[in-house]
Design a protein that fits this description.
mainly alpha; 195 residues; single chain
Length: 195
């Protein structure tokens, strides 16, 4: 099997998919989950407080870089285990949301969303570091475009697409589908070696 260092298309596809995995829950939390909370009758201030706390981890993601740099390389790499662990945690928090009623347990919902975005921000920094390690100088601009396109597509799928999906199949099915998608994408760095 080719490695990321050997195959330019594989690098672009991998980093795009990893950014898609970040975008889906981002879009869901910013759009779909707001719709769910409003449908449940929660007022705007409550919805704003819950989503505001959810996005807080993105403001301290600057701390992840030095922490990741301090992690000694493992046999499977330095950043790959972080990406995989973050994706697993993101999926687990989505599955946990499935069983929580926001009308009666909004603090728990807020904590789960905070934990989810903490993992997502860690995954973001680890993917960026991995991209910096593997991308050639002349492909970084193109790769960045592909990665942001992946994240933007994920935001659309998780936001409006997630709300439509939930309308037809239910919110629990949406949580499960997003978790499975994230876990499937986590298999890419699990199976594809960097070098």
């Amino acid at each position: 099997m080719p490695t990321l260092a050997d195959d330019r298309r594989l690098r672009l596809a991998t980093f795009t998919a990893l950014y898609l995995a970040q975008g889906v829950p981002w879009g869901f939390i910013s759009t779909g989950y707001v719709v769910l909370l409003a449908d449940l009758g929660l007022d705007n201030a409550t919805v704003g407080a819950a989503t505001g706390l959810a996005y807080l981890p993105w403001s301290f993601k600057i701390l992840w870089g030095p922490l990741l740099a301090a992690v000694p390389p493992l046999r499977i790499g330095r950043r790959r285990p972080v990406v995989i662990a973050a994706e697993l945690l993101m999926g687990l928090t989505l599955i946990a949301l499935w069983g929580v009623d926001p009308r009666t347990s909004l603090p728990l919902v807020s904590a789960l969303l905070f934990l989810h975005n903490t993992a997502a921000s860690l995954q973001d920094v680890a993917v960026d570091a991995r991209a910096g390690d593997l991308l050639e100088e002349d492909e970084r601009g193109r790769a960045n475009s592909f990665m942001w396109a992946g994240k933007s597509l994920g935001v659309v799928l998780g936001g409006g697409g997630g709300a439509l999906f939930a309308k037809h199949f239910g919110w629990g099915a949406l949580f499960a589908a997003m978790a499975v998608l994230g876990w499937a994408i986590a298999c890419i760095p699990l199976l594809v070696r960097a070098r």
